[in-house]
Design brief:
binds (~{Z})-2-methylbut-2-enedioic acid, 12 strands, four-stranded parallel sheet, alpha/beta, 311 residues, globular, Rossmann fold
């Protein structure tokens, strides 16, 4: 560890800002990142919002504080830019729950099905899909497909939730997010007893029994807009705890409660201010994707953007 890492947070933040200017860089942070990392970022959002911002910016360097597949998505959309993942080890267990060989075998079982890949997967899986989707647009993407059968990978819970909203036949892959899996029905029930006026909002990566308790099932970007538009002032939020910092920052006048204490994604919490500083200073850790894979993955992402244009 270099000596200049023994800096207090104020000094680190000042140096990060200087380096950002020098490098013509932009810092993006996912809503599940540590509060201090969200606070230093130029933009906080979901994976697709951030990747699209990355593609539009004039910055030469994009420091993507998140996990590997998210930084990869930014690189797929912006191959000419330097995309950095500050914490090299930050992966996604859900993304790792399907391999290219497994998807190849599954596609052979369902030759008539369209493959819809949730963005939480590797560039290689995206390159094998007909189209990508996010948790915000999965239903619209599935409904836009010509095929009646959809092989939905890798998140079974998002796929199951989509099945409740469409007439298409969804074939599920058994992946799941271990962080959302840790939420317990009893935690929601107990908190709701204490705060009967609170509105329950959960992410579609949650188990079915949790979704059944919810007033709204929404992606992180939808959660923010929903809570802003709602006349309610108290919410129970069923997703990774970083999102609570984002909601509290955007709406300090409202109350956001967590059903299960310490609902932390260990990968999202790997990025610390020191990593952001090192990343900018040493250009660590650049994302590279073989061009053939990148181009095929781009087709699946572009297909989604054409099927469901976002503002
Ligand atoms: O795509 C994302 O950013 C994730 C992981 C969740 C969401 O709902 O935004």
């Amino acid at each position: 560890m270099s000596l200049d890492l023994f800096l207090d947070d104020k000094e680190l933040v000042a140096r990060i800002k200087d380096l950002k200017k020098e490098r013509n860089a932009v810092i993006l942070a996912h809503s599940y990142e540590r509060p201090e990392v969200q606070d230093i970022a130029d933009y906080v959002g979901d994976s697709l919002e951030l990747s699209r911002l990355a593609a539009k910016t004039d910055a030469d360097v994009i420091v993507f504080c998140s996990v590997h597949f998210m930084a990869e998505t930014a690189k797929i959309l912006s191959p000419q830019k330097t995309v950095l993942l500050p914490a090299a080890e930050a992966g996604c267990p859900l993304a790792d729950m399907i391999t290219p060989a497994q998807l190849e075998a599954e596609k052979a079982k369902y030759p008539k099905a369209a493959v819809v890949a949730y963005v939480n997967c590797s560039a290689e899986i995206k390159s094998m899909a007909d189209i990508c989707c996010t948790s915000a647009n999965a239903v619209q993407v599935v409904n836009a497909m010509a095929q009646d059968e959809i092989l939905f990978v890798p998140d079974q819970h998002l796929g199951r939730w989509v099945q409740t909203q469409t007439d298409k036949k969804i074939i599920l892959w058994a992946g799941c997010c271990p962080t959302h899996q840790r939420m317990k029905v009893s935690d929601f029930v107990n908190l709701k007893k204490e705060h009967p006026e609170a509105v329950i909002v959960v992410h579609p990566e949650s188990n079915e029994d949790i979704c059944n308790l919810a007033d709204a099932i929404l992606s992180t970007s939808q959660m923010l807009r929903y809570c802003q538009a709602s006349s309610a002032t108290k919410f129970i939020i069923g997703t990774e705890m970083g999102m609570l910092h984002r909601l509290r920052t955007a709406m300090p006048e409202k109350t956001f409660l967590q059903p299960s204490k310490g609902l932390i994604c260990p990968n999202m919490k790997m990025t610390q201010l020191e990593d952001v500083y090192e990343s900018l200073k040493e250009l660590k850790h650049p994302i590279e994707i073989p061009e053939l894979i990148r181009m095929k993955a781009l087709k699946a992402l572009d297909g989604m953007l054409a099927a469901v244009p976002t503002k």
